[in-house]
Design goal:
Blueprint: H1 19-23, H2 25-40, E1 43-48, E2 54-60, E3 64-69, E4 75-78, H3 94-115, H4 127-140, H5 142-147, H6 150-155, H7 159-165, E5 171-172, E6 175-176, H8 178-192
Antiparallel strand pairs: 1-2, 3-4, 5-6
Helix pairs in contact: 2-4, 3-4, 4-8, 7-8
């Protein structure tokens, strides 16, 4: 019997342009919880309002309010935020980090969803796959995600193979990184919940 929470469409009241409207409530909740844990090692409490906006509260662990250079010298802030407007040493408030995180997740989820029609809302048992793939797209970029074999595997219904392909994204600066290997294993475990 299918889990009734699986593949729930976005609530009718979810505001267009929210992560919930884009990937569904269950997947959005998963992504909003997973990304801070993976990027900063912090635990958050997340609630989704009727209009689809997320309220994120830090429970424990660091939130990087001052931008730093990551292991490959990319300026990074908050929960893995990068881009041309992030410079090492910039300071952010928790509210700014939350707003930027929501914007970045929407942007990455749009890219992931655009090249992976097999993840569309209403597709059977795709909530966990969406969570894992948006997490991957956020971490490696949607270009790298879309150029990979993963979208094709999902679009043709080969979910287990798509989940397994996550494990190949474990390099930074040309070398295998144990932290990325562990992250990909965690994302694969989430993805595999929909592969059974």
């Amino acid at each position: 019997m299918a889990d009734p929470a699986q593949n729930e469409p976005a609530p009718k009241s979810a505001r267009k342009g929210t992560l919930v409207a884009l990937i569904g409530a269950a997947s959005a909740l998963g992504v909003f919880t997973l990304i801070p844990a993976e990027e900063s090692g912090r635990k958050v409490s997340v609630s989704i309002a009727q209009d689809g906006t997320a309220q994120i509260q830090n429970v424990s662990g660091p939130q990087y309010l001052v931008a730093y250079l990551d292991m490959v010298k990319v300026p990074t802030a908050c929960d893995g935020l990068t881009g041309p407007d992030i410079k090492a040493g910039m300071r952010f408030t928790p509210a700014q980090c939350t707003a930027r995180l929501q914007d970045a997740l929407i942007q990455h989820a749009q890219g992931v969803m655009a090249c992976t029609p097999g993840l569309k809302l209403g597709a059977y048992r795709r909530d966990n796959v969406r969570t894992a793939m948006v997490s991957l797209g956020y971490n490696v970029g949607t270009g790298a995600y879309c150029r990979s074999s993963i979208p094709g595997k999902i679009n043709t219904g080969h979910i287990r193979e798509a989940c397994d392909a996550l494990l190949s994204f474990n390099r930074a600066g040309g070398r295998v990184v144990s932290g990325l290997t562990a992250r990909r294993q965690r994302e694969r475990a989430i993805c595999m919940k929909d592969a059974a």
